[in-house]
Write a structure and sequence with these properties.
By secondary structure, this protein is an alpha/beta fold. The chain has 3 domains: 14-142, Orthogonal Bundle (Fumarate Reductase Iron-sulfur Protein, Chain B, domain 2), CATH 1.10.1060.10; 156-251 and 413-479, FAD/NAD(P)-binding domain (3-Layer(bba) Sandwich), CATH 3.50.50.60; 254-411, FAD/NAD(P)-binding domain (3-Layer(bba) Sandwich). Helices cover 32% and strands 16% of the residues. It has 18 helices and 16 strands. It has a 5-stranded parallel sheet with strand order 3-2-1-4-16.
């Protein structure tokens, strides 16, 4: 028996591919974009995309796919870009990912697919995220998205939450023939994709286009439904006639520092701040007037070092802040934010106050914030997270004048669904207990995944949980076994 070896269609030899530099993503100039909400990264042209795709080594055992939480066949879709079959590449990505235009923009590829790229042993890894975004945008621009028709099974699934996890479950299950309805508490579909990620990183129109594609697939959406209040899980499984429920409500309860002055006017949680910017359209000022966020000429700081912190402070800068600070108690090396986002923030002249922590917020005597009393830190021994623990430096206190402070130190689980669902067990932090492999909870026919199970994580990890859940739900609906 002979084995047929697929001939490479790449015009470059493996040796020559190593000589091609990674193609830079065109972007707005830092000083210009610091005062507008237009997208920072401008996207590849077809020529840039093909040039970047030719760098792929076409590994026999692609570790990039193995390290993708949703299992995209990277090698195959990249090969299609090489030969100019951009729609074929988009279709290949959609086999595993119903939100490619979104993940191509916000997924931390450096920690996932690109982190395992063989090229990175000697040169920069393949720009897999940039290529994914390119084919998704090309598909949308050409307008030839293919929607398959599937024989209905007669089974109904309710999905609680329209964030990346819930949308992934919906997209996978609708392709299995199940009837799917997504319930969203807010007035717009998309969850964190619309209220948490700013326009300059993920334009709302991109999310809406992905949602419309899912509507075309047959997914139904209902807004302004707070499951646990408007309707309970018991009612969905009972009188509403659903055969299974997936909970993907995220972790949207903000955490605070519990220091003096956090009650002052001008102190926000990152959740509230970004919701006002995004969902309440402060980013369209003055067409939409959100007076609490008129930051023109004001000094603003965010406390925290993650992607949410950078989203908030870069938004504040665009809303007119005179000075925009990041206050982070560790060094740059420990920052959890994506390197690209930190780089962009530096280009926009955000002031990073590293190894610094606020001790209290100071008032003008009338309830308004005027400054943050801070202390300089130094790194000691590693803590439970593996990062070196920051400890205060004696005699290093100082006051930083501020009009607005944004707390971005993490979130926790909103208890509404859990507290109204008998038999649904949670852990000591309030997150729903679910199998890591199947996303099944302690309540029959109820599945859960994403941040409501793991705590705050990334969009792509939530989507990975959604894919596992969809497979498990389909098995349950098909076999009846729990």
């Amino acid at each position: 028996m002979t084995t047929t070896v697929k001939k490479s269609l790449n015009p470059l030899s493996p040796k020559d591919r190593m000589k091609v530099p990674r193609q830079l993503m065109p972007e707005q100039d830092g000083c210009v974009r610091a005062r507008n909400f237009e997208e920072v990264n401008l996207g590849y042209s077809p020529e840039l995309a093909q040039q970047e795709a030719r760098r792929c080594l076409e590994c026999a055992k692609p570790r990039c796919t193995d390290n993708c939480p949703v299992g995209i066949d990277v090698k195959d879709f990249v090969q299609k870009i090489v030969i100019g079959d951009f729609l074929g590449a988009a279709a290949k990505v959609r086999e595993a990912n119903v939100l490619p235009a979104i993940t191509g923009r916000v997924c931390p590829q450096e920690d996932q697919c690109e982190g395992k790229c063989l090229l990175s042993k000697k040169v920069k890894p393949l720009g897999i995220g940039y290529l994914e975004r390119f084919v998704a945008d090309y598909e949308q621009r050409v307008g030839t998205q293919f929607v398959a028709k599937v024989e209905p099974t007669g089974r109904k699934v309710a999905i609680v939450g329209s964030g990346p996890s819930g949308l992934t479950v919906a997209g996978d299950l609708i392709q299995k023939g199940h009837k799917v309805r997504v319930f969203e508490a807010l007035h717009e579909i998309g969850g964190v994709l619309v209220y948490g990620i700013p326009e300059f990183r993920l334009p709302k129109q991109i999310v809406r286009e992905q949602i419309e594609y899912m509507r075309a697939m047959g997914v139904e959406f209902e807004t302004d439904v707070v499951v646990g209040r408007t309707v309970t899980i018991d009612e969905l499984l009972g009188e509403e006639g659903y055969d299974a429920v997936y909970i993907g409500t995220g972790a949207g309860l903000p955490q605070f520092m519990n220091i003096p002055g956090e009650h002052l006017n001008g102190v926000y949680s990152a959740n509230e701040f970004l919701t006002r910017v995004n969902l309440m359209k402060a980013y369209k000022f003055p067409a939409y007037d959100e007076p609490m966020l008129d930051l023109r000429g004001r000094d603003v700081a965010v406390i925290g070092g993650g992607n949410t912190a950078l989203d908030a402070i870069r938004s504040a800068l665009r809303l007119g802040a005179r000075k925009a600070y990041v206050i982070y108690r560790r060094s740059h090396a420990e920052m959890p934010a994506r390197a690209e986002e930190v780089h962009h923030a530096r280009q926009e002249r955000i002031d990073f106050q590293m190894l610094t922590a606020p001790l209290e917020f100071l008032s003008d005597g009338k309830g308004w914030l005027t400054a943050a009393r801070c202390v300089r830190m130094e790194l000691g021994e590693p803590d439970a997270s593996g990062r070196r623990r920051p400890v205060p430096k004696l005699g290093s206190q100082f006051d930083l004048p501020l009009s607005v402070a944004i707390i971005a130190i993490g979130t926790s689980a909103n208890p509404i669904v859990q507290s109204t669902t008998p038999g649904l067990e949670t852990n000591k932090r309030g997150y729903i207990q679910a199998s890591e492999e199947t996303q099944r909870t302690t309540r029959k026919a109820v599945f859960a995944g994403g941040d409501i199970v793991t705590g705050s994580a990334t969009v792509i990890l939530a989507m990975g949980a959604g894919r596992r859940a969809a497979k498990s739900i389909d098995e349950y609906l098909t076999t009846g076994n729990w």
